Amino acid sequence: MAYPTSYYAATRNPAPERPPLQGDATCDVCVIGGGFAGVSAALHLAESGKKVILLEAEEIGFGASGRNGGQVVNGFSRGYDAFLKSCGKDTAEAILAMSFEGGDIIRQRIGKYNISCDYREGTFFAAFNKKQIAHLEREKELWERAGNTAIEMIGPEKVSAIVDTKLYIGGMLDRRGGHLHPLNLVLGEAAALETLGGKIFEQSRVIRIDKTNKPKVYTDKGSVAADFVVVCGNAYLTGILPEITGRIMPVSSQIVTTEPLGEELARKMIPGDNCVEDCNFMLDYYRITADHRLLFGGGVLYSGYEPADVIRRLQPHIDRTFPHLRDKKIDFAWNGQIAITLTRFPHLGRLSDTIYFIQGDSGHGVTACHLQGKLVAEAINHQAARFDVFANIKNYPFPGGRVFRVPLTALGAWYYELREVIGI
Ligand SMILES: Cc1cc2nc3c(=O)[nH]c(=O)nc-3n(C[C@H](O)[C@H](O)[C@H](O)COP(=O)(O)OP(=O)(O)OC[C@H]3O[C@@H](n4cnc5c(N)ncnc54)[C@H](O)[C@@H]3O)c2cc1C
């Protein structure tokens, strides 16, 4: 299957043809899934001298990694206080200490491998109300404690210097975050993997894994015997490994890009060229692309259902944010699947001593997957302490099984959304 029609697919850098796996192969580590998690793990492992084979069912970046908002947001889908409450102080502190590493890995790789992906500095977390401001102030205090000194609270008088809309009362600007063209990032990382001797096979869907001590992975045309397997199929992993796929639920998020707006208008809308995400539970996120379009995302749908008319779903959100864009044409509209967990904590672990998995970044995976790929590589290289911080977090199946997990989770989300609307 080719990439879905999107702004990213239309502006991607050239990549080589990567034929499917044919016949039997061997390697140190076989990675399943060519998104940020899989490619990050594979590249870290190759950098440490491992012989790696990566199998991708479609093409590199076909999943969420090649379709997302491109927001390089620090931290994880839940903050320190949630980890503290559920997992205790040691886990919360260890995770806080890793909050900025994913973004740092991305910037290092862009420099080291000369990856052209339009990286720009700055993430603005936009608040609608005082409760959200208080949450951001707490976040700032924690992130500064963890060593990020590039954060500034933005009061009402300064919001328009960050984003030209009347929606927000303030927010937090993190200059250690940023935004980029995610498909070009993952394509650049895949190319870097190949320069280190890693092999990538596309159109190579894994249909079975022998979970023996020396695992073997099968596609319909070949097999890979490896010392270790790393499973990174996330929301797109279907049909195999029900023991982990039952712990995540796909939800779809929608994105549109306008026609090019011209540099002058684009700079007026977001003068510092940072990306913006609001603090709502069902959030909007947006940024200006390198060719001065507005790229706007949101409209999450539980169940992974993909609406026929993405523009209709997002247009009201754009209109209320930037009313003056009403007559601008939408050039691209698409969506992708996010894997959420019940707790919204990421789900990493082992299926055996030799089979690892990463999934469930719950909508916050650009930086997290880069970090988690590194943690898997550390664990395979006998340094499992940081991987185990995540692997020891309790994870639960969705209540209601396959039939009722969607309505039950949607009901839960609706409850949180309602609380926001009525301000409790
Ligand atoms: C619309 C959208 C917007 C988002 N915006 C942001 C954002 O701005 N910032 C942010 O931090 N996060 C964002 N996210 C989340 C982020 O994109 C994901 O958390 C992250 O990309 C997940 O990466 P991954 O490698 O785990 O999975 P994916 O990128 O989904 O990759 C999984 C890959 O595995 C392959 N695969 C599946 N099954 C098999 C198999 N059996 N054999 C071989 N290959 C297989 C798939 O084809 C796919 O390419 C967004 C997500 C979406 C969908």
Q: Can you walk me through this structure?
A:
This protein has 424 residues and is α/β, with parallel strands linked by helices. It folds into two domains: 1-119 and 180-247 and 342-393, FAD/NAD(P)-binding domain (3-Layer(bba) Sandwich), CATH 3.50.50; 120-176 and 249-340 and 401-424, D-Amino Acid Oxidase, subunit A, domain 2 (D-Amino Acid Oxidase, Chain A, domain 2). Helix content is 34%, strand content 25%. The chain has helices spanning 7-10, 36-47, 80-87, 89-97, 101-112, 130-145, 159-162, 182-195, 242-245, 263-269, 310-321, 366-380, 385-391, 401-422, and strands spanning 23-32, 52-55, 71-72, 120-127, 151-154, 170-179, 199-201, 208-210, 216-218, 222-231, 249-258, 275-278, 285-288, 294-302, 330-340, 347-352, 355-359. The strands form two sheets. Strands 3, 4, 5, 6, 11, 12, 13, 14 and 15 form a nine-stranded mixed sheet that branches. Strands 1, 2, 7, 8, 9, 10, 16 and 17 form an eight-stranded mixed sheet that branches. Helix 2 runs parallel beside helix 12 (366-380), helix 5 (101-112) packs across helix 12 and helix 12 (366-380) crosses helix 13 (385-391). The longest helix is centred in the C-terminal third of the chain and has 22 residues, at 401-422. The termini are far apart. Residues 32-38, 55-58, 62-65, 67-71, 73, 205-206, 232-237, 240, 253, 255, 285, 297, 335-338, 361, 363-366, 369 line the site of flavin-adenine dinucleotide.
CATH structural fold name of the largest domain: FAD/NAD(P)-binding domain
Count of discrete structural domains: 2
Question: What is the CATH class name of the largest domain?
Answer: Alpha Beta
Label the CATH architecture of the largest domain: 3-Layer(bba) Sandwich
The mean pLDDT is 94
Percent strand equals 25-35%
Bound molecules: flavin-adenine dinucleotide
